[in-house]
Amino acid sequence: MNVLSWNCRGVGLPSSIRFLKDVIRQERPSVIFLCETKDNKGKMESLRRALQFDGLISVDSQGKSGGLALLWKVKDQIQLRSWSRNHIDVEVKVDGKQAWRLSGIYGEPNRNQRRKTWDLFRNLARDSNLPWCAIGDLNNVLTQQDKKGGAPYPSWLIEGFNEVLVETGLIDLDLVGHQFTWERGRGTSAWTEVRLDRALTILPWLNMFPLVKLYNLEGSSSDHSPIMLVPQVCEKLGRSKGSSAR
Q: At what angle do helices 155-168 and 114-126 cross, to 10 degrees?
């Protein structure tokens, strides 16, 4: 069950829809998590039909900001557990295999509110013993190496985010491909790149999918690149080989 995550910065834009259709045709994800849809459930339902997906959970935007959507191919495989303006948490069941959790996360864009995202991770970690994976635009880096250009990332945000990973047992998956997922100012002296989009898992989930890969699909109609989570239980032909967790 491959999972595509993308901060689309407005899914109603023709360029966003064209890009999303192209990615689906090439990558064939089973699940799609979208951040900043900037739209309502009615528009997301129209998108679901256009993309020919069976399932949809959406969180309406607040005016021109926010909005989340989770779409999936086979309707009976996903069951909603909880949601907020910053997350959609579901249980995944595929072909009688062990169930696991998937959380689509949109980290608070306002740095002064970032602790709310950290508390969200803590609450989700306490909510279930199922193997768990979280993916999305987390709006936070883990090290200074996750940012290129511009001023150094605030140390208190790095330290706080790392503390959350220690407390919850979440493990950051390595990204195959270009190391940054967001950019602005390309071709100027202010060009900045940051890895804001990532996937985090706990050890029981990694034990289920020991050869998991996380790919940066690079380039999009948004300032964020989509990322693709490919859970694997055995070796098969793919984009790349190598370790995928750190």
A: 0
State the angle between helix axes of 14-27 and 41-51 in degrees (0 to 180), rounded to the nearest 10: 40
Task: Say whether pLDDT at 110 is over 90.
Answer: yes
Distance, CA of 54 to CA of 34 (rounded, Å): 16
Q: Strand (E) positions, 19-126?
A: 31-35, 55-59, 68-72, 78-84, 87-92, 100-106
What integer best gives the mean pLDDT of the chain?
A: 92
Asked if the structure places residue 165 within a domain, the reply is yes
Q: What is the pTM of this model?
A: 0.92
Q: What distances in angstroms separate CA 180 from CA 91, 146, 157, one per listed residue?
A: 29, 7, 18
Q: Is residue 183 part of a domain?
A: yes
Please check whether residue 20 lies inside any domain of the structure.
yes
pLDDT category of residue 64 using cuts at 50, 70 and 90: confident
Task: Please choose, from the candidates 242, 193, 189, 184, the residue with its C-alpha nearest in 3D space to the C-alpha of residue 213.
Answer: 242
What's the pLDDT at 95?
Answer: 83
Confidence grade of residue 232 (pLDDT, cut at 50, 70, 90): confident
Q: Which residue range is the domain that position 86 belongs to?
A: 3-230
**What residue has token string 């999009």?**
220
Residue 157 — φ and ψ, nearest 5°?
A: -75, -40
Report the length, in residues, of the chain: 246
Contact status, residue 191 vs residue 183, Cβ threshold 8 Å: yes
The domain spanning residue 80 has which CATH number? 3.60.10.10
